[in-house]
Amino acid sequence: MILGSGWGGFKLLRDMDKKSYDVVAVSPRNHFVFTPLLASTSVGTLEFRCITEPVRGYRDVEYHQAWSDAIDFEKSKVDCTLNLPKVPRTYIHKSPTETLEDTNKFTLDYDHLILAVGSYSNTFNIPGVKEHAYFLKEVADARKIRARVLECFERAEMSRSDEERNGLLHFAVVGGGPTGVEFSSELHDFIREDCSRLFPDLMNHVTLAVYDVAPTILASFDKSLAQYCMNKFKRSGIEVRTGTVVEKVEDGKLILKDGKEVPFGCLVWSTGLTENPLTASLEGKVLKSKNKRILTDGYLRVLDPNGKVIPNVYALGDCATIKDHELPQTAQVANQQANYLRKSLNKLAKNPEKSLEEVVQPFSFKNRGSMAYIGNWEAVVDMTKVNDNAKESGRLAWVFWRSSYLTMSVSMRNKMLIPMYWFMTWVFGRDVSSFQEYDRFKKLDA
Ligand SMILES: Cc1cc2nc3c(=O)[nH]c(=O)nc-3n(C[C@H](O)[C@H](O)[C@H](O)COP(=O)(O)OP(=O)(O)OC[C@H]3O[C@@H](n4cnc5c(N)ncnc54)[C@H](O)[C@@H]3O)c2cc1C
Questions:
Q1: Which structural domain, as residue segments, surrounds residue 283?
Q2: Are 205 and 302 in the same domain?
Q3: FAD/NAD(P)-binding domain location, by residue (predicted)?
Q4: What gap in Å lies between CA 397 and CA 393, rounded to an integer?
């Protein structure tokens, strides 16, 4: 049983040997998301369909569109709740006491369990973030951001004062890691290439800023590449406000630690990751790292609070890390781990009398470097972990960035759609239709 359909879970459910295993997948999301290109969809450089792969495409996998809520390791059972609307009341007939809630609950048994449930965005409990900021983890998030950016421009067009216009057209990104940087770059491209054409009178009011507590953005990259990105942002007019602490967020307003208040129209929050509710529910049942990731041994087997292996339970990707070998929370790690676990379990099935230690070596992560898009057809590629001098920035890096992600995209359909949309965006610009619905009769002051 595989929990999750992200980088770790999806690869496993696709590639496991179905002759040896009956594969059951449980995930609230019925598709895989190719996250490296998610920021591109949030402004319409690519369409959402270009970066998703449906789980239902794999008919040899038993799939349940559900959340796993709790795990009983002793009984090898997982409690789940369907991530679907409840059935109409007419169909409640099992027992007179059955509630609508009950019809969404079910329990599954497993022989082998793989946890690949990812993580949530970390708000560090800063007041107002959950209520007023947008996150960028799912297609639904990208869709909301795209609608909000357009909303800000349309609203600003009808604003009654410059103060209001400036506030609505201040786009704030909190977090200068790769996700924050790539989103800012995509948004800047959208504003420069499309909004400037569609809303020319508003351009003097637009500002875009990246806020980070650290002294630099792209802190995990080679220093010279991080500096290259900072310089490029400054030249492009993207403000980089490093060493800035956000203390509170209110409706349309950031409140900084130094007391300054910054009005914004759209705030995107990307300051790192924290455990999700399922991982949190395993407190006391599994060993966890300082930053609340499930700890495994080198074979990706989950450890109990005493450090002993829990039989037939594995964890990988963002939700887990190897004891004494902290791994980065990246698609690269999740992908390599899924590949490793697939091979291990397939070998185990062929040699049932042997233990995992006898059929495979422990997992070892091969860092192949990192890349980030930094706008205006430029990128940074950092492979200094592979070779000291292997780094590139600018247009050549951008060609490498695009071709790598095109090669890595999963299906033939997306390998065709992605370049097609890149070309269409280049020729016709991004689509600015918004499908957002508003309640015309809602009392605005209520
Ligand atoms: C915008 C963005 C850009 C990124 N760019 C890069 C990049 O360029 N390179 C890179 O290496 N990494 C990148 N990453 C990081 C990368 O996406 C993650 O490290 C990777 O997705 C982790 O894979 P995972 O399988 O652990 O989790 P995820 O891919 O997050 O998948 C988790 C899955 O678990 C499901 N799930 C959640 N809760 C439950 C539950 N209770 N029960 C069952 N299922 C559950 C979710 O619906 C989802 O299907 C990026 C991330 C983002 C958000």
A1: 2-29+65-119+275-359
A2: no
A3: 1-338
A4: 5
Residue 353 lies in a domain: yes
CA distances from 299 to 12, 22, 114, 316, 408 (A): 15, 21, 12, 10, 25
Count: domains in the chain: 2
Residues 6+ apart with CB under 8 A from 276: 117, 118, 119, 120, 319
Residue with the nearest Cα to atom 51 of ligand 1? 35
CA of 6 to the centre of ligand 1 (A): 5
In whole angstroms, what is the distance from residue 215 CA to residue 172 CA? 18
pLDDT band at 443 (very low <50, low <70, confident <90, very high): confident
CA distances from 84 to 24, 61, 65, 118, 251 (A): 18, 19, 7, 20, 31
Please indicate, yes or no, whether residues 105 and 223 belong to a single structural domain of this protein: no
Looking at the fold, whether 182 and 257 belong to one and the same domain comes out as: yes
Q: Do residues 378 and 238 touch, judged by C-beta distance below 8 A?
A: no
Q: Which atom of ligand 1 is nearest to the CA of 405?
A: 8
Contact 359, 351 (CB under 8 A): yes
ipTM field: 0.98
